[in-house]
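Following up on my earlier thread - several people asked me to post the actual chain instead of describing it. Fair enough. Here it is, all 176 residues.
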Amino acid sequence: MRTSVIKKLVWLLFYSLPLIAFAANFTEPRAEVVSAPSAQSFALPVNVTIYKSHRLQLESLSRIPRNPLKLLSDKPAAEDVKAYVRTQAMEYGVNPRLALWIVKHESQFNPHAKGDGEASRGLWQISRIYHPEVSDAVAFSVASSTEWSLGRIRSGKANEWSTYRFCRTLYEDCPF
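Reply from S.P.:
Thanks for posting it. Predicted structure:
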């Protein structure tokens, strides 16, 4: 007798939860209606940084690796990788600080890095799970992975890298 009463009470409570949640929704204060911004607020100047590609200017920078074939070696120097990523970012119109910051925090400029139980690989730590279209050869290649990653960033997909997505919450040196 006692268990059937308990069962009925539990059944009643379980099936009345949607009704309780619906009623509780109307007890919260409503948000104020905000009017559309005035035309004056649109007239404010916006700071936009545009990086133009000028091959002659880029070649004159001293940080560019003099021998790009060093990037093809088994262990390219971190300075060569930094210089390559910086120049490619400028060519693609991506903020070089953003590109360098992501590479630094993803792989420490090591093109042979593996992470997430070897699911992420290469300089940019391209995920094998989320991007199966990227082969290991592309992911571990400095030039190919940089081209692919900068294309993603340029198209507005910088949030694919968790270091960028959680920049302010996880990293003290977050510049963004």
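The chain has a mean pLDDT of 76. That should answer part of your original question.
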